[in-house]
Fold this sequence. Notes:
Elements: E1 10-15, H1 22-36, E2 41-42, H2 50-62, E3 67-72, H3 78-87, E4 92-97, H4 111-124, E5 136-137, H5 139-160, E6 162-167, H6 182-187, E7 190-192, H7 196-202, H8 211-220, H9 227-238, H10 248-264, E8 271-276, H11 281-286, H12 291-299, E9 304-305, H13 310-323, E10 327-334, H14 338-345, E11 356-361, E12 375-378, H15 380-386, E13 397-403, E14 407-416, E15 422-431, E16 441-446, H16 450-459, E17 466-470, H17 475-484, E18 489-492
Parallel strand pairs: 1-2, 1-3, 3-4, 4-5, 6-7, 6-8, 8-9, 13-16, 15-18
Antiparallel strand pairs: 10-11, 10-17, 11-16, 12-13, 14-15, 14-17, 15-16
Helix pairs in contact: 1-5, 2-3, 3-4, 5-13, 5-17, 8-10, 9-10, 10-12
Amino acid sequence: MLNNIPVVKPGIIAVSRDCFPIALSQARRAAIVKAYGEGLYECPVTVENEKDALKAVEDVRAAGCNALVVFLGNFGPETPETLIAQRFEGPCMYVAAAEGDGDMINGRGDAYCGLLNCSYNLGMRHLSAYIPEAPVGTAEETAQRIRDFLPIARAIIGVKNLKIITFGPRPQDFFACNAPIKGLYELGVEVDEVCRDMAAQMGVEIEENSELDLLAAFREHENDPRIDEVCRDMAAQMGEGAYYEDLNRRMAQFELTLLDWAENHKGARQYVAFANKCWPAFPSQFGFEPCYVNSRLAGRGIPVACEVDIYGALSEYIGLCVTDDAVTLLDINNTVPAYIYDEDIKGKYGYKLSDTFMGFHCGNTPECKLCAGRAVKYQLIQHRLLEPEGSEPDFTRGTLEGDIAASDITFYRLQCDSEGVLRAYVAQGEVLDVPTRSFGGIGVFAIPEMGRFYRHVLVGKRYPHHGAVAFHHVGAALFEVFKFLGVKDIAYNRPASLPYPTENPFA
C-alpha cells in the first residue's frame, strides 16, 4: 500500500583484527544470519584491511543492499571498519559480539573493547553511524538489534531521497509554519521553495510552486478520464450519506492533480511529501476544502501537511517510514474540559486532567484512523470566515471529520529554530476512547506529564502548534532517527521524578 517509502535491504559485513582468529568473526557472523532468518544478506568478504573494506562495500552494493550492519566479531580493525561507513551510501549500524560461544583463550574476541576504538574512530572521521543502546550481544540479541534497525534505516534512506513539494507561502500571520531552510539542506532534503543560489550551493534541484501553479494544473485535469474511477473509490470508502456527492468530481480531480504532480516532479528524488496552502484562497477558487483529499493521500503514504508546514511534512514522512503506516499532523489544540474528564476519564484511566489535551485539525487525518461515525463535512472555522453569516456551507465543504479512534500514539516533531538549529521532541501516549463532543478530525489524547511537557518543551523551547502523530509507540525508533540525523536537542516528556532544567523547584 505504501509505495512512497523505501524497502530496506540489509547486509552484514564482519570485520576482524588480524591478530585475532578470522574464523571467530566469520562463525559469529554466520550465527547472526541464521538467527535473523531470511532477508539479511551475508557478505562473504571478512574485512581485515582497507582493500577488504572496498571489496566488501562493492559486494553489498552489487547485492542491492541499502543498509549495512558492520559486525565486530572480534576486536576489529579501526581504519578499515570505519572506511565502510565512509564509502557506503546508506545507513550503517555497528554492533559487536558478546563472549560465551567459545573458550576464553582462542574463542575470545574482545569485541567489547574493539567497539570503543571503533566509535572513537567514527567520531574522528565525522562519520554518521548508528550504534544501538545495547550494541554488544549474542547472535540472537544482535539479530533483534538488526530488526530494530530496519525502521530507523528506512527513515534515514527516505529522508535522503525525499522531495517536499510546496504550493504557496504560509497563510498570513501564521509564523508558526515558518521554515528556516538551513536545517533541511543539512539533512539532504530537497525543498521546492527556496532560492536557486542556495540550491546550487547545496547541490540540490529546486522548483518553486505557487497557488496559481496548482490551480492551473487542477484545471488541466477537468476532463481526466480517471475521475469516475476515483469518485467510485471515494464513495466506497465513505459509504452512503457520509460524503457530498456533488463535490466528488472536483475532489477526484484534485486528487489526480496532486498524484500526477508528485510523479512528474520527483526529479532526482524517489519519494515525495506535500506542504500546501489550504486557506484562505483555496476553497473559494477550487470550490471545496482540500482536507479529505489530503487525508486520502496520507492514507496512501503521501503526507500532505496543512498550511505549508514544511517541517510538519518532513516529520510526518519520518513517522511514515518508521511505522510503515499512515500518520497525521494535528494542532496541539485545546484542553479537555473538566466535565469530560470527570465523566469519561477520571477513575477509568490513570491520567490527571493536566495529562490530557485534544489534538485537532480540520479534516486531514486518514479515514482508517477515525471512528466509524466519520464523514465528509464542512470546515466550521473557515465557514465563519469566508462565507456569509447564516448561509449554508458551500465551498467550505470537504473536510473529513470525526473522532480519532483509540490507539497508542507517538506525538513528535522535527523543527529548525530561528537560529537554524535542528531540534526535536518525542512523547508517547494514547488516544482515549472518549467522545470529544466537538468538530473536525479530533481526539482526546493523553501523554504522561503532558502539562509539564507542554510548558517546558513545547512552550519553553518555542515549538509551533503542529505535531506529527504516529499511531504506534515508536518513540525509541524516532529518538534514534533524530540522533542519526544529527539532532542534538531531543526533548521528551520527563517523568515527575525528573525535573526539566527550566522547571522552578519552588513552584
